Amino acid sequence: MFNRPGRSISVLIRLSHIVMNNISSKPFLFLRVRCISKTCSDASQSFTVSYLINKLGFSPESALVVSKYVHFKTPDKPDNVIAFLEKRGFSETQIRQIIKTRPTLLCYDVEKTLLPKIQFFQSRGVSSPELSKLLYYNPRLLSCSLQKQIIPCFNQLSNLLQSDSKAITAIRRNPYLIPCKLDAYMLPNIKTLRDNGVPESKIISMFNYHPRSFVMHPDRFKEIVKEVKEMGFNPLLLKFLLAVIMFRKVSKPAMERKFDVYKKWGWSEQEIWEAFRKYPGVLEASNEKIAAIMDFLVNKMGFQSLLIANQPSIFGRSLEKVIVPRGLFAQDLLSKGLIKDFRLSALFHTSEKVFVQKFVNRYEDKAPALLKLYKEKMDLAYLSCLKCNCEMSLPCRLTYQCFVILVLITIILPPSIGRVGNRENKVIFFKVYTGLTGVWIEDKQQIHIGEEV
């Protein structure tokens, strides 16, 4: 019994010797084996490509790419997998995307591999629509081991967040949580925060929104926490965690590039760090957004650059939805003598409700037509958000931007030019729209500036 491995190795050596000695005199022996193997592989790949095109609507190019990762000779298992997904409400487009991400799912056993995972999540209170969304955005869950990865990771997340539903949310926001070794790369980091005096409630709250930021090598995470603490952040405040997350998300080269942008607007390195202490999000905004906000506030609105450094939370507001509409609207009120001046915080650091109370309702009797336009813009934006579940799709964003620009043109231009339907109005609209969004609309086509047409 104990001589079997040695005997097998001996046979393998002898076989290799025979093949190598005969490869010159009888090469057909070796080539025949290779040809048979290649023919079988080609036939399998050809069937797979044909199946993906005819059954799932893949393009020939996409089907060829996917077929490199999965092979099957009969449609039995793929048909079962597709029927399984269709039964759970997945559309053909969603199934195609799932298979494109995880091609090997087509060869899975539905009863043994896929169904138990579905049943586990349902037993934890996940509804069918939620589960469909979770699996669509994170199809890797279907290829993870239920016993070795899904159940242990899910239980650890549920215990940490004190809720199964919050664990599901965390998994949806960071697909890599499930196969990740949480014992090695997450739980030690949670302990580091606790040891440094960060309240449990704030850890859980921040983890809900930024789960990926807590997953990294513990030694590096300790260095970040130490650095943030040495900068003077109070562990009891939420800003401490925000600063940790920023250092975790933004690499040093990217941080240096952001510093360069701020310095171009006259900020010193010390002033940038002071702004970071007030609002860590100054390092999260993209270089383009930083430059655009500074250009609008300094060159268009006339604010001093260092005044903005003292109120850095403005970099967390939307340029298109908040800063530009409110800024131009306030300037028009100023030009009409309805207000004497305005502060940065009053314009951009308030909610929509407070802004309307301060700048819209207050002057309703003095400029009803002007204020009506702003209310219509606000109502349309609200309805667009409702239709898109508060996450505007591209068409809704474009519709919203178009309406805001039309409102601004009507506000700023004289009545002879600013009428709806006026030809000059349309020309100005396209110029303003292109400047703000980088998109030129011509003959019902959208062309992004900088793209080849």
UniProtKB/TrEMBL annotation:
Keyword Transcription included in the entry's annotation: yes
Keyword terms, alphabetized: Transcription, Transcription regulation, Transcription termination, Transit peptide
Database matches in InterPro entries: MTERF, MTERF_sf
GO molecular function, one term: nucleic acid binding
UniProt-listed Pfam families: mTERF (PF02536)
Similarity comment text for this entry: Belongs to the mTERF family.
PANTHER family named in the record: CGI-12 PROTEIN-RELATED, TRANSCRIPTION TERMINATION FACTOR MTERF15, MITOCHONDRIAL-LIKE
Protein name in UniProt: Transcription termination factor MTERF6, chloroplastic/mitochondrial-like
Organism encoding this protein: Durio zibethinus
Name of the gene: LOC111307164
